[in-house]
Write a structure and sequence with these properties.
Order of helices and strands: HHHEHHHEEEEH
Helix content: 25-40%
Radius of gyration: 26 Å
CATH topology: Nuclear Transport Factor 2, Chain: A
Oligomer: single chain
Shape: globular
């Protein structure tokens, strides 16, 4: 024989399931805390082609992700015998000659981290225009482009707009099939504007 279940017990079970449903529904519609604008996002792709290096570079700059930024450049760990070389714009070189004479990947990391800490939370803008690819082989490529940079800082005394022309020389590691920037030439496209080299100097010093 089946044991008869009392009406009060059935009512308690119904109330329990109703309360559980309400609790679950509330969690589904709970508002998430907004993302911290100073936290790093990651949009890094394995650079199996030179154009993915450029994409990673732009994403790292916009996301302010220093590790992804540094991974775009060549060093002895990813390209045997290769030392990364940055050639500043001529006007920046005349002002910061001592700094740029010893520029390295550690200097890239230092300026980038300093720049990141000064951001106001607004997403930086880095735009490449008039892009040309030359000397393109299975092992290397030369990427040339005009650029413009818009930044927003908490310190109103810092420069926020930079523009110029850059050349990235990229090389492929024949073993890993991954590409890296081994040389970066910065140039002024307009004498009235401030180049990328001045952006680096602004935060390195």
């Amino acid at each position: 024989m089946y044991k008869k279940i009392s009406n009060s017990k059935i009512q308690k079970q119904i109330i329990f399931f109703i309360l559980m449903w309400i609790f679950t529904a509330c969690n589904l519609f709970e508002t998430r805390s907004p993302e911290n604008p100073n936290s790093s996002r990651s949009n890094f792709e394995q650079p199996v082609s030179y154009d993915l290096v450029i994409k990673n570079f732009q994403n790292a700059f916009v996301d302010q992700n220093v590790d992804n930024y540094i991974q775009c450049f060549a060093d002895s760990n990813n390209l045997s015998g290769v030392i990364y070389n940055f050639i500043p714009s001529s006007d920046a070189k005349s002002v910061y000659s001592a700094m740029y004479d010893s520029w390295s990947l550690s200097a890239e990391r230092k300026y980038f981290n300093a720049m990141k800490t000064k951001q106001s939370g607004t997403i930086p803008i880095l735009t490449f225009t008039n892009v040309t690819i030359s000397d393109n082989t299975a092992e290397s490529a030369l990427y040339t482009s005009n650029y413009s940079i818009n930044l927003n800082y908490q310190d109103a005394q810092l420069k926020t707009y930079f523009s110029g022309k850059l050349q990235f020389h990229l090389m492929r590691n024949s073993k890993s099939n991954l590409w890296y920037i081994d040389s970066w030439l910065d140039q002024n496209s307009d004498t009235t504007q401030v180049s990328f080299s001045f952006l680096k100097a602004q935060f390195f010093n």
